[in-house]
Design a protein that fits this description.
Blueprint (H helix, E strand, L loop, with lengths): L3 H18 L2 H7 L6 H14 L7 H17 L6 H10 L6 H7 L7 H31 L33
């Protein structure tokens, strides 16, 4: 086992590596006095993954989560399956709300089972979106639908014209 002084030196080296590889502003934004290397890594990772989850695919998200868990295990930080699975479900965006609820009902849960289920759900959601787009397009071009309105010509402003004066009444002779 690594001694306290040896671990302190490793920890300081990792923090120094973070400091030299990211922008100084980002480093100072994330790091608090007394943080160890693990705390800095968790904060940095959260900063980058929290903002991008909406745009990532399930494969990208799960692969990144697994990589982070493996890296934490490499530095002797315990990441058990319960933590990995709860982190996975907590990080899903609102589109996967129902899927996240369904995952909690899965018998003998495991990371590979969760990933497989989420891939299927993502594929299903993409199919639904395509069908909705197709139906919307078809509804707009079907025989029963009115033809698309022709673009209107822009109205050109013209000053009001005076109406012609009414004809003068004939004069009576006396």
């Amino acid at each position: 086992m690594v001694g306290d002084s040896e671990w302190t030196a490793i920890d300081a080296t990792l923090i120094r590596w973070f400091f030299t590889t990211i922008s100084k502003d980002l480093f100072h934004t994330v790091v608090s006095n007394g943080d160890d290397a693990r705390a800095v890594w968790v904060k940095l990772n959260g900063l980058f993954t929290d903002n991008k989850l909406q745009r990532r695919s399930i494969d990208d998200y799960c692969r990144r989560l697994k990589t982070v868990a493996d890296e934490l295990r490499d530095i002797c930080t315990k990441v058990d399956d319960d933590l990995l699975l709860s982190t996975l479900t907590a990080g899903l965006n609102e589109d996967f709300g129902n899927a996240a609820s369904n995952l909690t009902l899965m018998p003998e849960p495991s990371f590979p089972k969760f990933v497989a289920y989420l891939r299927l759900e993502e594929r299903r959601m993409k199919g639904v979106k395509k069908r909705v787009q197709h139906h919307a397009l078809a509804a707009g071009t079907s025989r029963g639908a009115p033809p698309p309105a022709a673009p209107r010509a822009p109205r050109i402003f013209s000053p009001p014209t005076r109406a012609p004066a009414p004809p003068a009444a004939p004069q009576q002779q006396s």
